[in-house]
Amino acid sequence: MPVPVPDRRTVVLPHQAGPVDDDGCVAAAGPPAGPAQASARPAGAPAAAPAAGSERADAADGAAAGHPAAGDAIPGERTGHGAFPQDLTLLLIGADPNSPVPELWDGADHKVRLRTARNLTEAERLLTDDVHCILLDLAPPERDTRDIRDTRDTREARAERDERGPGDGCDPGDVRGRGGARGPGEACDPGEACGPGDELDALREVLRMAPAHAVLVLTSQTDAERAAAAVRVGAQDYLFRDELDGAVLSRAVRYAVERKRADRAQHQLTESRMLAQENARLERGLLPTPLLEGSGLRFAARYRPGRSRALLGGDFYDTVRTPDGTVHAMIGDVCGHGPDEAALGVELRIAWRALTFAGLCGDELLATLQKVLEHERADDEIFATLCTVDISPDGRHAGLCLAGHPAPLLARAGRPPRLLPYESGGPALGLLPHARWPRRRIELGGAWSLMMYTDGLIEGRTGEGNQRLGQEGMTDLVSRQMASGLRGEELLDAAVTEVRALNGEELTDDVAVLLLDRREKGRPE
């Protein structure tokens, strides 16, 4: 048998109103009336109540009225008059299926669909991704605030309450959900909220159930305090039943949807900022603190990760002084630029410091570090280059080990900087299982500067072509700056700045530079 379709309660928004006819009636703007409109209900006739849990605006009903069907809309397309997406869907949650919510048309003459649910169980079933806004009808103060979850008849509940004696239900001194004090022997309704905060439990449940949806609450004009509390709990806005019409609801829904979208965007931005701050603190904590007390050496370092907005890259360095007075310095580079490479670089640095304090040096230390690398790397093709220097307690000579890493730059007093020998170095860590890394003795002299660096400093371009700076270009660059009197941190700052300027843009590779200076006693700086 045919299913009767309820009459439609249509509210024409102000911008859609047509001219006033001779009888004082406003003609609705839009397409000409179809056959279904000729049988519209008489003025003043009560609106047909929608069935609970059903949509009151189906495609056939909209087409019969001369309005486009829901399927004709382009998903995600925005309409005129500001904000409604086409096929806007509202979900009304309330114990009263005859809640005074007018039907709406959006600015592009598309009907707004309204789904109704008597309780949260039905609402959870009807809450789909195409719902844009939830209208929660809060129970009036004289009615049990949990009727939205429990639809038992109020009078029956009150009768059951009257049959109970003292001690059943809430304690005599409890406060009603409506705010009144309870006298001795008076218990609360079976489902009644027993504290003032429980009146909004239904709203809290809706917010928990639909964290991504805009929520409006409906309440009576005499219950403004609870309406304001609902906004504090998390609703986007509230509406009074007594003043509800199409224009008010249309504006409120637009505002709620846009405010929820803005709130979510702000929340995501705040989370991103907090995560970035936490990562920055973590990365700063992973950078080394040199342990050179009592060595008489001056230390300076500069570090620039190649990753955008990162503080830590695959390059790593460290400097420590062991109890026998020897100063150990190290700089390395894990292939790659991601967070995994940065984490592996930190592991190698910490392992190097621990092994150094344990007394390992030279080939034995590098062989152990290679085992650490082999166990910790995510891929067998990942390798790391390394340069280690151990400076004698008197500071006049040192031992050098190279594992596929560029040789350091040494500047002695009264002599131009020069690169230390590279020929005796071994392969990078992680390439050959049984590799060896011979230690070469280097004479330093009384006063010297030793600069250790990663390949990011020498692989920048020197112009518009593909020519790289290289080790020779870097040596000439540092020589000019030292001749102008730059030392320590000023020298490193100037060197990195000039390399970036020659490259014409930010360097894409990680850059780490470490500088150790020794001055003879009595000699001016």
UniProtKB/TrEMBL annotation:
| Keyword field contains ATP-binding | no
Positions of the PPM-type phosphatase domain: 294-518
A GO MF term: protein serine/threonine phosphatase activity
Judging by the UniProt lineage, the source's domain of life is Bacteria
The annotated regions of Basic and acidic residues compositional bias extend over 1-10, 144-166
Q: Where is this region: Disordered?
A: 1-82, 144-193
Q: Which positions, given as ranges, span the membrane?
A: none
Q: Which InterPro entries match?
A: Bact_Sigma-Reg, CheY-like_superfamily, PPM-type-like_dom_sf, PPM-type_phosphatase-like_dom
Instruction: List compositional bias (Low complexity) regions by residue number.
Output: 25-76
Q: What is the source species?
A: Streptomyces celluloflavus
> What is the name of this protein?
PP2C family protein-serine/threonine phosphatase
Instruction: Kindly give the PANTHER family that the UniProt entry links to this protein.
Output: STAGE II SPORULATION PROTEIN E, STAGE II SPORULATION PROTEIN E-RELATED
Q: What does the record give as EC number?
A: 3.1.3.16
